[in-house]
Amino acid sequence: MVVVGRDSASGTREYFHDAVMNKEDFTTKQLEKNSNGAVRQTVFQTPGAIGYVGLGYVDGGAVKAVPVNTGSATVDASVATVLSGEYPIARGLNMFTVGGQPEGLAAAYLSFIMSLTDRHWLLKKDLFRLPE
Length: 132
Known about the structure:
Structural class: alpha/beta
Strand content: 5-15%
Order of helices and strands: EHEHEEEHHH
Largest sheet: 3 strands, parallel
Radius of gyration: 17 Å
Strand order of the largest sheet: 2-1-3
Low-confidence stretches: none
Mean pLDDT: 85
Shape: globular
Number of helices: 5
Number of strands: 5
């Protein structure tokens, strides 16, 4: 088995370390990659590989999510099971600004993210749900 994960600067790695690994060390043989896309590509191209990525990087074809046994059920990873709370390995993503209300480019970026069209794109990509 080839274990593939994120590098030490990754928020995905930090979440996985805390929520899944219970703060235990990763194997020293883990291949560390600097992006979810690189983890996905390595898992796709390497026989016997396993790794962790954001749900938006799972395509259901060549790279599939491993169902999680919650003790009372085996739950597949999907937007629906994450949103319902059934799938236990999920984290929220937050955006922050410094100094009050965003202005200029920061305001335009947040407006872009919060637009209805972009909400549809994010849900289609299975990345995350924005608040209403």
